[in-house]
Amino acid sequence: MTNRTGNIKTSVSSVQIDTLKYDEYFRSIYLGKIANGQEVGYGAVPEITGVFTKGKDQYCTIVEVKKEIPQGTYASAIYDVNSKTYFKQKTAFQGVFDLGTNAGCGSIPVPAGKYEYRSYLDDVLIFVFPFEVRDSS
C-alpha cells in the first residue's frame, strides 16, 4: 500500500495487517505535519511526511474514509521500533469518522526516535506507518 500521493511506502512492518478490511473502509491513512501554532484548515494543509522535528512541527493524523466508521471502532497505537514496546497503547477514537477526509493535529506525542503508527478497526490491525521524530538542532 502507498498513501494517496504514492510517495511514501507504508505498511512495511513485520506484523500482519488486514488489507481487505482497510480497503473496505479507507482510501488512505497517513501522517502529516504543519508548523507549530497553525491550525489545520485551508491555510494549513498537512504536508505528508514520515519525519517530524520537535519544537518545529505538529504531528497530524489524516484519515480518508470511504465507509462511515462508528464511534469506538477505530483505534491507534504508537510502537517504539528500537525498544520493541508500545510508547502509546492502543486507544479507541471516541468520535465517528464520516465519509471524506478527517484530520487532527497536535504536539508530537513521543520523544526523538523511530516509531510505527498502528491503526486498528474492530481490534484488527489494518495499517502501519513508520515515522521518525528528531530533536530540533
Helix/strand order? HEEEEEEEEE
The CATH topology annotation reads as: Immunoglobulin-like
Oligomer: single chain
Strands in their spatial order, largest beta sheet: 3-9-8-5-6
Strand content: over 45%
Percent range for helical residues? under 10%
The level 1 CATH classification is: Mainly Beta
Return the structural class.
mainly beta
Description:
- It is a single chain.
- The protein is mainly β and 137 residues long.
- The protein has a single domain, classed as Immunoglobulin-like (Sandwich), CATH 2.60.40.
- The protein contains 1 helix and 9 strands, in the order αβββββββββ.
- It has one helix at 19-25; strands spanning 26-35, 47-48, 51-53, 57-65, 74-80, 85-92, 100-106, 113-121, 124-134.
- The strands form 2 sheets. It has a 5-stranded mixed β-sheet with strand order 3-9-8-5-6.
- β8 (113-121) and β9 (124-134) form a beta hairpin.
- The longest helix has 7 residues, at 19-25.
- It is globular.
- The termini are far apart.
- Residues 1-12 have low confidence and may be disordered.
How would you summarize what this structure contains?
With 137 residues, this protein is mainly beta. Helix content is 5%, strand content 48%.
Descriptive tags:
137 residues, mainly beta, Immunoglobulin-like, four-stranded antiparallel β-sheet, 1 helix, disordered N terminus
Write the topology of this structure.
Elements: H1 19-25, E1 26-35, E2 47-48, E3 51-53, E4 57-65, E5 74-80, E6 85-92, E7 100-106, E8 113-121, E9 124-134
